[in-house]
């Protein structure tokens, strides 16, 4: 047993629990009692499969890895990016979220825009502890890497890094939004409507582009505050036909105003602090309802029709 010997070898591996962090995982040769696992068991497994995949090793992206779970390569995960099969990677673990698409509070788009990718930072930015526990129900295995380096450790190999097609000239798009990418948008004007309401106008990457946001859907604003990614959903107030920009009307939740929320709103205060020329990132479209016109609309992709529509406006 591992505790019956006064000396035993512990293996160390470098892990990346978050994109901007580096940690160390200490792995014992075996597990206590009758539990399976440990680096000796893993090496025996690799020796048996050496003929078919001699360079395969288990990812150490998560400090709490289950050495007996199934493993997947990044190329395998990338194949699962459709409503029929939607996989994501969070902290080195692979999750099959297909069954949860119809139940996701933010609509299936919120998952599909990240399907087939490592969305650790974005998941952490917008989900509660309850959601993180719920995610474990959809865990199907762990990410593996080839050789001695992790996919995420190299900018050129990482899905967060450069694409293999970066040497090609960019194709000019009419629609600015790309559901699988964040686009940079520059603040070009800021107007105070009241003491705590602002009108922000952001320029699109190209002055002849449309935002490309269907009626009924929204966008994510993505900013980094103190090294941590923050994402919040907003609905532009400008028309879908506006070219080269979009507008947002945002209420600023200042700190030390509401006793239950002494720190105020993290994103709204950040937006209020922006100076003209500052840039943030936008991602979308997101949402499970899309209005098509003339009473036609879709809910979770299913066609619906209504002769009359009632609008309810709510807020603070």
Explain the overall architecture.
It comes from Trifolium medium. InterPro entries: CBR-like, Cbr1-like_FAD-bd_dom, Cyt_B5-like_heme/steroid-bd, Cyt_B5-like_heme/steroid_sf, Cyt_B5_heme-BS, FAD-bd_FR_type, Riboflavin_synthase-like_b-brl. This is Nitrate reductase. GO terms for molecular function: FAD binding; heme binding; metal ion binding; nitrate reductase (NADH) activity. This protein has helices at 39-48, 74-78, 109-112, 120-126, 129-135, 266-273; strands at 11-15, 23-27, 56-58, 71-73, 81-82, 85-90, 93-96, 139-146, 183-194, 197-203, 218-225, 228-234, 245-251, 279-286, 289-293, 296-299, 302-305. 13% of the residues lie in helices and 31% in strands. The chain contains 6 helices and 17 strands. Strands 3, 4, 5, 6, 7 and 8 form a 6-stranded mixed beta sheet that branches. Strands 12-11-14-9-10-13 form a 6-stranded antiparallel beta sheet. It has 316 residues and is an alpha+beta fold. The chain has 2 domains: 11-153, Flavocytochrome B2, Chain A, domain 1, CATH 3.10.120; 183-291, Translation factors (Elongation Factor Tu (Ef-tu), domain 3), CATH 2.40.30. Strand 1 and strand 2 form a beta hairpin. The model is unreliable at 49-67 and 147-172 (pLDDT under 50). The longest helix is centred in the N-terminal third of the chain and has 10 residues, at 39-48.
- Sequence stretches where pLDDT stays below 50 over 5 or more residues: 49-67, 147-172
Shape field: globular
Largest β sheet strand count, sense and barrel closure: 6 strands, mixed
One letter per element, helices H and strands E, the order comes to EEHEEHEEEHHHEEEEEEHEEEE
The proportion of residues forming helix, as a percent range, comes to: 10-25%
Can you tell me the CATH architecture of the largest domain? Roll
Q: What percent of residues are in strands?
A: 25-35%
């Amino acid at each position: 047993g591992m505790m019956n010997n006064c000396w035993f070898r512990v293996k160390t591996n470098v892990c990346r629990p978050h994109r901007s962090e580096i940690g160390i995982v200490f792995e014992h040769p075996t597990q206590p009692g009758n539990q399976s696992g440990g680096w000796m068991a893993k090496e025996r497994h690799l020796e048996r499969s050496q003929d078919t995949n001699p360079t395969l090793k288990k990812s150490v992206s998560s400090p709490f890895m289950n050495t007996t779970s199934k493993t997947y390569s990044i190329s395998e995960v990338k194949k699962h990016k459709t409503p029929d099969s939607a996989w994501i990677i969070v902290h080195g673990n692979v999750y099959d979220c297909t069954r949860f698409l119809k139940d996701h509070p933010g609509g299936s788009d919120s998952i599909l825009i990240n399907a087939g990718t490592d969305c650790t930072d974005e998941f952490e930015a917008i989900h509660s502890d309850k959601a993180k526990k719920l995610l474990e129900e959809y865990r199907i295995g762990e990410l593996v890497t080839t050789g001695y380096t992790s996919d995420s450790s190299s900018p050129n190999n990482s899905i967060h890094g450069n694409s293999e097609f970066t040497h090609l000239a960019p194709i000019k798009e009419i629609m600015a939004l790309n559901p699988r990418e964040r686009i940079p948008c520059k603040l070009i004007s800021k107007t105070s409507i009241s003491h705590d309401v602002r009108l922000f106008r952001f320029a699109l990457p190209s002055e002849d582009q449309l935002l490309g946001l269907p009626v009924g859907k929204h966008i994510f604003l993505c900013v980094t505050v103190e090294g941590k990614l923050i994402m919040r959903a907003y609905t532009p107030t400008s028309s879908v036909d506006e070219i080269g920009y979009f507008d947002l009307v945002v209420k600023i939740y200042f700190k030390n105003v509401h006793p239950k929320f002494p720190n105020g709103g993290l994103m709204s205060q950040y937006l209020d602090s922006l100076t003209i020329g500052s840039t943030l990132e936008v991602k979308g479209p997101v949402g499970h309802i899309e209005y098509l016109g003339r009473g036609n609309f879709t809910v979770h992709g299913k066609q619906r029709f209504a002769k009359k529509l009632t609008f309810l406006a709510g807020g603070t």
